[in-house]
Amino acid sequence: MACFSQKKSTFAAMITLQMMQFTAVVLMLLLTVKLLFLRERRIKSRHARQARWLMTTATALLSLHFAIQLKTGLRLMGITQSVMLNLAMLIPASHLFARAILLLQRRGNLSLADRWTGPAVWTVTMAMLAVAALTDGQPLLSDTLELRLAERTGAVLYMLMQGYYTWRHSVSLVAMHRALHDYYDRDTDGMLRWMQYSIVGLMLLALMVPVAIFSSGPGMLTVAFAIYFLMFYLVDSFCFYLTSPAPERIQAAEQNAAEVEEELKSLNNEKQTDAGTAYAAVLSPEVMSEVEQAVEAWKARGGYCQTGLLQPIAAQAIGISRYRLTTWLHQQGLKYTEWIAQLRVEEAKRIIAAHPDWSNDAVAQHCGFTDRTVLQRTFKRIEGITPQKYLEDLEANSPERNLN
User: Fold this and answer.
1) How far is CA 346 from CA 328, 376, 378, in A?
2) Which of 70, 114, 280, 367 sits a CA distance of 20 to 30 A from 299?
């Protein structure tokens, strides 16, 4: 009876494992098809198209990986037998995922380490597995101490590879956020939120993949489906991003940041002293005063109430260079997006007090917000209350009401 129960448990585990592997094959195939059928004409840049094919190769590789696992039943033979295949396929797939995102972030400008860290880790891992399998004197798929040691070392190398790419992604993401905040007059973090979540997902994969390939039982099933979800989110968000206007908008912000940097380098060359000391990216008190006077005159004209006020347009209207405006803001600890938002919220407060009968739509249009939703969200973020609550507080504290 106990033997029958054990066989029944083993059979149930086998069915569950096969269902999990079949689910993975179908999911990866569907994601591959989705990437293949993205509209080419909607993907504008060359590096974005390259990233699309890297991502496609990664999902196709994972589909093949899970299909081999399902067909051969290596997982049922034991942990060691399947780990070799897992490392052989998951390392290059993870590298391709990471490299695809880096291509988008860095507009194709990858370092040698970005290009070759993944292949190097795969080569070293495969070499260790081959040496362990050939020198232990046992059949290829035998569970030996040498092979287990090589597999664990390969898993550690995989985690280090993912750690490197996570660091590179994070640094690039910070630079992209900085470029956006120094260019647009509204909060544009939403364009990069998927990338931020995907970077966190890749970091989690670095921790969960070794757990999944070395463990067994119900816990493995939970980890495996978490991995499938992260992969689905990464690829689905990647597809949406490529076909949206976001890449072009981010490119415009990064181009502006590069031009401001070129202006700084030009000033460095012009201001260099005989001793060779370069002009720092800090405005002198005299220049700060000039910029502040120009900005105050522009604010008095209500220049910040123009909708879609990009930083170059604002700098031109103020009558100063983009470099001076950016540096002036940075010296006050501000980004352009934040500064414009504060000016518009102050104007909204003035308008609400002066015209309590105006609707939020009218206030938003007057102050330069794209719509009432942006007005309400920005107002609450800065003031801590909604425009309606601000009006109610004004009316509650008005002298007429207190007299009554």
Assistant:
1) 20, 13, 11
2) 280
d(CA 203, CA 163): 7
The Cα-based distances of 306 to 85, 351, 355, 362 in angstroms read 59, 15, 20, 14
Read off the tokens for 225.
């489906």
Q: Are 133 and 140 in contact, with CB atoms under 8 Å apart?
A: yes
For 367-376, b/e burial (b = at least 16 CB within 10 A) is: bbbeebebbb
Task: Between 343 and 68, name the one with better pLDDT.
Answer: 343
Which two structure tokens, joined as six digits, stand for 91?
A: 């390392």
d(CA 148, CA 125): 12
pLDDT at 13 over 60: no
Burial class (CB in 10 A: 0-12, 13-18, 19+), 97: buried
Cα–Cα distance for residue pair 253/18, rounded to 1 Å: 48
- 271: which 2 tokens? 């201001």
Extract the tokens encoding 169: 């992604």
* Of 160, 199, 201, nearest in space to 176 by CA: 199
Record the pTM: 0.84
Q: Rounded to whole angstroms, what are the CA distances from 318 to 87, 310, 326?
A: 58, 12, 12
Residues 6 or more apart whose Cβ sits within 8 Å of residue 27: 228, 231, 232
Rounded-to-integer distance, Cα 118 and Cα 249, Å: 30
pLDDT value at 309 more than 60: yes
CA 338 to the chain's CA centroid: 21
Q: Where are the beta strands (DSSP E) in 215-258?
A: none
Closest CA to 202 of 161, 250, 242, 241: 161
Q: Which amino acid is at 247?
A: P
Please report the beta strands in 43-183, taking only residues with DSSP state E, as ranges in sequence order.
Answer: none
* DSSP code at position 138: S
Write out the two tokens for 391.
Answer: 């009006």
pLDDT of residue 285: 87
Cα 163 to chain centroid distance, Å, stands at: 15
> pLDDT digit string (tens) for 135-147?
766 666 667 788 8
